[in-house]
From TrEMBL:
<comment type="function">
    <text>Catalyzes the transfer of the diacylglyceryl group from phosphatidylglycerol to the sulfhydryl group of the N-terminal cysteine of a prolipoprotein, the first step in the formation of mature lipoproteins.</text>
</comment>
<keyword id="KW-0812">Transmembrane</keyword>
<keyword id="KW-1003">Cell membrane</keyword>
<keyword id="KW-0449">Lipoprotein</keyword>
<dbReference type="GO" id="GO:0008961">
    <property type="term" value="F:phosphatidylglycerol-prolipoprotein diacylglyceryl transferase activity"/>
</dbReference>
<feature type="transmembrane region" description="Helical">
    <location>
        <begin position="101"/>
        <end position="123"/>
    </location>
</feature>
<protein>
    <recommendedName>
        <fullName>Phosphatidylglycerol--prolipoprotein diacylglyceryl transferase</fullName>
        <ecNumber>2.5.1.145</ecNumber>
    </recommendedName>
</protein>
<feature type="transmembrane region" description="Helical">
    <location>
        <begin position="60"/>
        <end position="81"/>
    </location>
</feature>
<feature type="transmembrane region" description="Helical">
    <location>
        <begin position="214"/>
        <end position="233"/>
    </location>
</feature>
<dbReference type="Pfam" id="PF01790">
    <property type="entry name" value="LGT"/>
</dbReference>
<comment type="similarity">
    <text>Belongs to the Lgt family.</text>
</comment>
<feature type="transmembrane region" description="Helical">
    <location>
        <begin position="30"/>
        <end position="48"/>
    </location>
</feature>
<dbReference type="GO" id="GO:0005886">
    <property type="term" value="C:plasma membrane"/>
</dbReference>
<keyword id="KW-1133">Transmembrane helix</keyword>
<keyword id="KW-0808">Transferase</keyword>
<comment type="pathway">
    <text>Protein modification; lipoprotein biosynthesis (diacylglyceryl transfer).</text>
</comment>
<keyword id="KW-0472">Membrane</keyword>
């Protein structure tokens, strides 16, 4: 009986997608862009839950995100182009390709820096503490990165060294870098980083529940956690990159940013313990005319208080007035005699 069952073939590697673009008539749907958008929505969803739980206004956060996202996308592209400028402005490069964001190429460092600047502008407008917003959004940013890394999977880019492990990622010949044409499977660094970032999401959420981080400490924990993983994952990659003292540029960036995040975390915990008040950024509520009419005026409240006085108090006041009127006419006064 068992010999009649069809054999189940389990591939000894992770296959790459057959395509990353689908066309609806003249409209191309690119998997890379879809992954980025899904990441933005997922990150906002998680950040909104945390912000509201702290007493913040969801409307205010929505406006902050509307500032942060476009700033972050522009910054991510600028960082990528600057750190890989030879590809666009070097010999044989095409500067127009620097605008083709759908082909991949977003630097997380530029995204965080520019996105934070956009969020800071919006926080100033709404008079809410910027670091409190950063704390609320920290695990959401890591979650957005999880989705974004699958865009690299569809583009068959940013993979690691060759490997024969069963989880190796199959890369089509046209996407293999020079010198590695004879290899078929590589380390799936997109998957390593996605799984690592899921761990960072859990770390920040659980630690924040336990210690109630404030003044940027949850965000600093996210930065330290992410850069710790990025440093070793970056060392596996074989795509072209600038090297300093034998290490890739992004490895050095991870080390420096990790150190800065740890120092900030320690100083913040020492100098500014506790959490900020985020309720001051709630939008003004519209006034309902019916509520205004139903609400007693100050004069009416004063009259109500006066009517609540007991008969005993009224009697005491009348008695005091009678005693004053019956005082002797020659009673001494404080006026000087002439």
């Amino acid at each position: 009986m068992s010999s009649l069952l069809p054999a189940v073939v389990v591939p000894a590697f992770i296959p790459s997608p057959s395509q990353g673009v689908w066309h609806l008539g003249p409209l191309p749907l690119r998997a890379y862009a879809i992954c980025i958008l899904l990441g933005i929505f997922a990150g906002y969803w998680l950040g909104r839950k945390r912000w509201v739980a702290r007493g913040g206004s969801p409307e205010v956060l929505a406006d902050i995100i509307m500032w942060a996202v476009p700033f972050g996308l522009v910054g991510a592209r600028i960082y990528h182009v600057l750190t890989d400028y030879k590809r666009y402005f070097g010999a044989g490069g095409d500067p127009i390709d620097a605008l083709k964001i759908w082909n991949g190429g977003l630097g997380i460092w530029g995204a965080i820096a520019f996105g934070a600047f956009g969020a800071w502008i919006a926080c100033r407008r709404h008079k809410v503490p910027f670091l409190a917003v950063a704390d609320a959004m920290a695990p959401g940013i890591a979650l957005a990165q999880v989705f974004g890394r699958f865009g690299n999977y569809f583009n068959q880019e940013l993979f690691g060294r060759p490997t024969t492990h069963w989880w190796g990622l199959e890369i089509d010949p046209q996407h293999r870098p020079a010198g590695f044409e004879q290899f078929a499977t590589f380390h799936p660094t997109f998957l390593y980083e996605a799984l690592w970032n899921l761990g960072v999401v859990a770390l920040v959420i659980l630690a924040d529940r336990r210690f109630k981080f404030g003044h940027g400490r949850a965000f600093a924990l996210y930065v330290a956690g992410y850069t710790a993983g990025r440093a070793w994952i970056e060392n596996l990659r074989i795509d072209e990159a600038d090297h300093i003292a034998g290490l890739r540029l992004n490895v050095w960036t991870s080390i420096l940013v990790f150190a800065g995040a740890v120092v900030f975390f320690v100083l913040s915990a020492k100098l500014r313990p506790g959490q900020e008040d985020v309720s001051g950024g709630k939008p003004d509520q519209p006034t309902d005319p019916e509520d205004a009419e139903a609400r007693p005026s100050d004069e009416a409240e004063t009259a109500d208080k006066a009517s609540d006085e007991t008969p005993d108090k009224v009697s005491e006041s009348a008695s005091d007035g009678a005693k004053s009127a019956a005082a002797p006419a020659d009673a001494p006064t404080d006026r000087p005699r002439g």
